[in-house]
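thought: user wants a sequence for this fold. calling inverse folding tool.
action: design(structure=
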């Protein structure tokens, strides 16, 4: 692969904001956002507010972005399948695609539409929040950033070298790895174990330190993730040896699933427990903890949608048994 001269980003949310920040002003690079219709017009007019600064990257339609050297997908999981036609329209013969979405199957979903040969496996670690008047905020210095690699040997490929070059010209923190699948599953395990239980109670992450009951739920979820990862050929020894460096957070911190519920949005529970339930069924591995968490969070979404708002309604009474 020759030098990367064009990068397009699909998805300008929390993860996308870090990418926009990182590639802003990058020398010898055409960087653009992929968007259609009203969303494209809004991005062109308002730009992206990141850490208090407004960025105005070029905005292209999927047809205009066709054939870029690198396409970065940073969508919410629920939007991915609907966006596959856009991704297909952007990808040219020599386009490499990187998915920075949470979960363990976005690469497979995208590959089903464009071919696995276009995919570089990747993940991102960025702690961001939305602040009034400052937009999407994160600490550029402490952000771990993007981790990427070839899913199979050779791991030191020409396109890995090309990506090292383009990332080296940016402000992004990145590193490549020879065990990207294991690193993705490692992050997935952390998300399932730490993201989901706190969302049920609506409390900060200090709950895992302060409650044996919350820790027991987290441990049960962890066990199911590890069983399924092993059944799918992920090397558990590599997972154990990976540097699991994280960052210090306040015990009051609320992760993405709880943030979504707080804001009345639907969550990415289908990407977390929903995926594990499906994979568990395929592998013949029971997932009782994830099944319970899945239905509890779905019920909280229904509550946010007003399904259980019975005040003033004249429906028939329910039997209490």
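)
observation: tool returned 321 residues.
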């Amino acid at each position: 692969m020759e030098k990367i001269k064009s990068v397009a980003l699909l998805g300008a949310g929390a993860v996308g904001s870090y990418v926009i920040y990182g590639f802003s002003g990058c020398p010898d690079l055409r960087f653009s956002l992929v968007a259609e219709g009203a969303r494209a017009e809004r991005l062109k007019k308002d730009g992206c507010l990141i850490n208090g600064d407004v960025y105005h990257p070029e905005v292209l339609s999927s047809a205009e972005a066709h054939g870029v050297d690198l396409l970065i997908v940073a969508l919410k999981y629920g939007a991915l399948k609907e966006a596959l036609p856009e991704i297909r329209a952007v990808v040219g013969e020599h386009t490499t695609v990187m998915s920075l979405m949470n979960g363990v199957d976005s690469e497979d979903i995208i590959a089903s539409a464009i071919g696995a040969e276009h995919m570089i496996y990747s993940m991102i670690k960025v702690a961001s929040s939305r602040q009034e008047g400052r937009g999407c905020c994160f600490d550029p210095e402490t952000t771990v950033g993007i981790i990427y690699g070839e899913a199979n040997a050779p791991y030191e490929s020409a396109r890995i070298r090309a990506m090292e070059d383009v990332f080296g010209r940016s402000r992004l923190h990145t590193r490549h790895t020879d065990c990207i699948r294991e690193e993705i599953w490692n992050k997935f395990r952390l998300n399932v174990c730490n993201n989901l239980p706190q969302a049920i109670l609506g409390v900060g992450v200090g709950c895992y330190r302060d409650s044996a009951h919350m820790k027991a739920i987290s441990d049960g979820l962890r066990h199911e993730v590890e069983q399924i990862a092993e059944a799918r050929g992920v090397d558990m020894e590599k997972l154990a040896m990976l540097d699991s460096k994280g960052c210090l957070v306040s015990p009051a911190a609320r992760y993405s699933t709880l943030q979504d519920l707080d804001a009345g949005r639907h969550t990415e529970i289908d990407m977390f427990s929903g995926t594990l339930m499906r994979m568990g069924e395929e592998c013949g591995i029971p997932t009782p903890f994830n099944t319970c968490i899945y239905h509890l969070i779905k019920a909280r979404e229904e509550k946010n949608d007003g399904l259980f708002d019975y005040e003033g309604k004249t429906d028939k009474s329910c039997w209490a048994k």
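thought: summarizing for user.
answer: Here is the designed sequence. The first strand starts at residue 6 and ends at 10.
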